[in-house]
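Exam revision sheet. Question 4 asks you to relate a sequence to its structure. Input first:
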Amino acid sequence: MKDLTQAPELKRFVLPALFVGALFLTLFLRRPDISGDTRMFTFQGPTMGTAYTVKVVAPGMDNATQARVDQAIIAALDSVNSSMSTYLKTSELSKFNAHQSLEPFKASPELIKVIEEASRVSKISEGAFDITVGPLVDAWGFGPDKPGSPPSQEQIALLRESVGYEKLQIETSSLTKRSKFLRIDLSAIAKGFALDQVQESLESLGYGNFMIEVGGEVVTRGTRLDGRIWRIGIERPDPEGISVYKAIELDSMAMASSGDYRNYREIEGKRISHTIDPRNGQPVTHRLASVTVLHKTCMSADALATMFSVMGPDEGFALAQTQDIAAFFLIRDKDGTYSELQSDAFKARTSR
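Answer key, structure tokens:
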């Protein structure tokens, strides 16, 4: 069954700019590492067009306990996917998008929660983050259809009439379109929310030391098997391979990244970014290669990383400072090297 990150139109948000695997021992599914009375159990599998890895540090689990933990992880991930996928026609979100009416659409508390956070990020960025931007992304050739010629200014202006987060009214238990052609895409925030749901599931089972990774986004709690804080790598923005640019200790926080170095088009020798600025309907042209955000929830980290990818290093860094957001910017220089910017909040959370 395909899911929310498998549709081609969503590729602009599927960028695992965190490199986790190189910083951990390679473990077989559910095979424990033994150290004294405590072990580390690993749970892995496919989800949302990518894969999940969950490492739980705990006293020994028997097979039945391992199965319950695995089932809880899968249930949390599947619940978000079945609600917020734009690819599954039966999802709650797909039904809302097909709802071409200006009457209220009854929505689940989980969907409302994610959309409310998306709206908050849209407001602080003055529209740089916008879950209704899909039609513009499609027009620039990053959607499900075969790419064609770039859209004209007239086409962009027409599409922008049905794009805009302010055209969505959010109530306690319902959503209302102010344009019947409005559709939303939660791929820049739903995956992060899924990690938060897995975190809650593990904590409800009594576990306090774990690391969750889905498609490069990470949530940690407590410590590793050796008692140290989980150490996570930020990927070097290299389209040809995967390597670690910087490793940090992630102390019971969430981490998400976004960038432009693997998903782009070339038109007449000119590189066209997959990141479309909803404020003008154009691909971004700044030199930001990737941005990593630390936050208390992965849902927010996910959305904020996408927001900064649109805003770029200058505008984005200024907002990170004023909003006290922990953000790490990697900027592409003309000579092929990278320069970096670290917000004060990022420095405070990673300096030891």
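Marking note for examiners. DSSP finds eight helices and 19 strands in the chain.
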